[in-house]
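Q: Predict the assembly, please.
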Amino acid sequence: MKQLISPKDWILLSSYLDDELNPRQKARVEARLQVRPELREGLADLQRTKEILRRAPARPAPRNFTLPASMAVTRPGLSLRLVPVLRFSSAAVALVAVFFIASTMMGGFLSGRQMASAPADMYAKEMTTLQMESAPAQEESEAPPPVVYWGDLPAPSEAYGLGGAGCPDGLCGGGDGTGAIPDYGNLPQPMIIATQPAGVLRAQPTTAPYLLPTPTSVPAAEEQEQPVEGTGPILGVAPTEQQGEVLEDTHRQVLPMVAAEAFEPADEERGSRPTPYGYIGAGLLVLAAALFITALILRRTVLR
Amino acid sequence: MDEAGLVQAALGGDLDAFNRLVLAYQDMAFNLAYRMLSDDAAAEDATQTAFISAYRNLRSYRGGSFKAWVMRMVTNTCYDELRRRHRRPTVALEPANPEDEEEIESPSWLADDGPSPEEQIETRELEDAIQHCIQDLPEEFRAIVILVDVQGFDYSQASQATGKPLGTIKSRLARARLRLRDCLSGFGELLPSLFRLGREAE
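A: Predicted assembly structure:
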């Protein structure tokens, strides 16, 4: 059975036929040709094929292909000189594009932080405004509470604060801060004096043993200027019928929270906002790619 | 003036010197183009385009065999033409009459890639057999076998003319010769007795 000739052997035989092998390869092929007849037959086939092709009749050129002067007006090598220029331009534009894209990314990061801090700033401003608006009320609330004096109005050497004297048993008021119940002794009917920044006011005696408090929340300035009579704001305890109701200053506590939530942008909204630098960078990147491809095509065309 | 002197003169802008080089290589260039394209008119156009391209890009010539450099222009022009044919295949005649929808008999429509009896009679000449088999080769093999076996280039010149390394030239040439051997053996009795190929080796 005849052995098949491997592709590698065919290449060696073909190169041997054209005398394109080095002496060592040539010697090896000749040695194998001595012992393998199929190699000799294969070499003979290749030789005949080459002879047939070599005998192919040459076709003379149908005309002269010499160039007239009109065909040679184009400056030779102009396209070739454009290649490095295009390459340099491509690299330069790519660098600028990278700069813009990097700026966009950095700017996006910074603007993201700015956008994130913006609601906090607005929130702080809003809080400041609200605090400024509520400042009088706070001052009023921090003002000394009404002091109840019993009997005539002596110049009290000390007060027991928060109208604690309103309760005969001493449980309704704040006391002196030590927790001890002050000893009021036998006091006559209470007379209420509401201490205001404007001064000390005399209260009229009432027959009620206890003074029911009215809402202590931010009384109007004109109300505070007036002397407290009857069931004025003394103890800070809401009457029974008003308990559970939303107080007047509720909005001052709720509004800042609502404002903070309203000014907080969504995360995706913060991250996906495009910037002009991004568009410029992308455009420059496309331009750089176009220049590079043009240089590549021009070079391939020129070298043909 | 020798070839190197003509090339230097052409590089200096001497069109006459370049045209003398054209006259020296135009037969070889046209034959290469004809073998590649198998069409006289297309080969003529490709040859002219290649010489124009060679003159305009003469500064890219870096020495070595000027013949191989010019043939590279020709092969690249032929590759461009072959690619253009693949992109826009043309059909010379309509296969059917749009009015009566009957097929129109035409030589191109009836053409067969294999050697039909009529073709065998027509291709008794060696030229036709060779050209038929060369056209059956893949394009990347075709230029190498034409340059080496038809034009008589050595491997280094073929490498320069095609832009392929020597190893590629060797392997492609061997495979192209095997294909040509098989193809030419199909013509059998049409070839001169001296060149009748056997397939005993397989």
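Chain B touches chain A through 60 residues (CB under 8 Å). Residues 15-37 of chain B form the longest helix (23 residues).
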